Amino acid sequence: MNRPKTTVKIGSLILRNPVMTGSGTFGFGSVMALVRDLSRLGAVVVKSTSREPRLGNDTPRIVETPGGILNAIGLQNAGVENFITEKAPFLRQFDVPIVVNLVGYSVEDYVFLADRLTQAGAADALEINISCPNVKHGCDFAVDPKLTFELISEVRKVTPLTVITKLSPNVANVVPIAAAAADAGTNAVSLINTLLGTAIDAKKRRFKLANRTGGLSGPAVKPIALRMVWQVHQALPTLPIIGMGGIMNAIDAIEFMLAGATAVAVGTATFVNPLASIQIVDGIEKWLADYVVSDVNELIGAVE
Ligand SMILES: Cc1cc2nc3c(=O)[nH]c(=O)nc-3n(C[C@H](O)[C@H](O)[C@H](O)COP(=O)(O)O)c2cc1C
Predict the structure, then answer these.
(1) What spacing in Å lies between the alpha carbon of 168 and ligand 1's midpoint?
(2) Catalytic residue at 132?
(3) Element (H, E) at 226
């Protein structure tokens, strides 16, 4: 058999393979570029970027839990101008699409960011983070279909770039939110962001995180993420999905594609093994060859 085809399409973005990085688990690529070749990835998704620099929450901001981690980083970043002048030129050295994850306090913030990044040519696609559980009002847009529709419609007006809406698992039913984003013109949705949780130190009688609550990620959340990807794909079969939540290896990634994802993102696994996403790229290719699948797109939603 010839080499299996691994190219997938999300909006106008062509990915050489379906493996992306999970926002916030890869920084802005400069450290990761020391240990691996970024151009092997389908796309690089950078940490949430806001209009003004943000310092994030107080420490401790990360705690290990069984099968995962809780984080309350609080969207620390150096702001969009710093991204445009410093981070983007670095990433542009690599032959890999750059997806910039945006975060704001208001519709106006998101519109400003989308417009600024588009005009500056600093992104190939925009991931609209409406689902951060670790900051005040971070999930407001993601729990209300009307607000999601309004936000994505306004962003859509100012950019021709591929728009990906990042959804929250902290809702009773994710489908109406995905549908609202699709109606507003998003090219894809990504899910899941982290699940709101907490951890307590019994001996000290204190919360383990300074922020008290944080977002749960890693293998512990995988069954929930997989179920949500499947539900959205069933309801909206033509809407591309970037699936994430506990993907540790190539088999996990393939399971997400079978559930309905067109691409996947690798997050917490990178903290355990900085080479995880590259190994998942290789592992998917090997799996396709082993099971004589000629095109990775055949897997999308193929679960029976
Ligand atoms: C330390 C940490 C920081 C994160 N920061 C962001 C962020 O800035 N923006 C965002 O949209 N998601 C952020 N996420 C969520 C991840 O991108 C991903 O949606 C989630 O962790 C589930 O995938 P995983 O289980 O593979 O990590 C963060 C996750 C972690 C663990």
Answers:
(1) 11
(2) yes
(3) helix 222-235
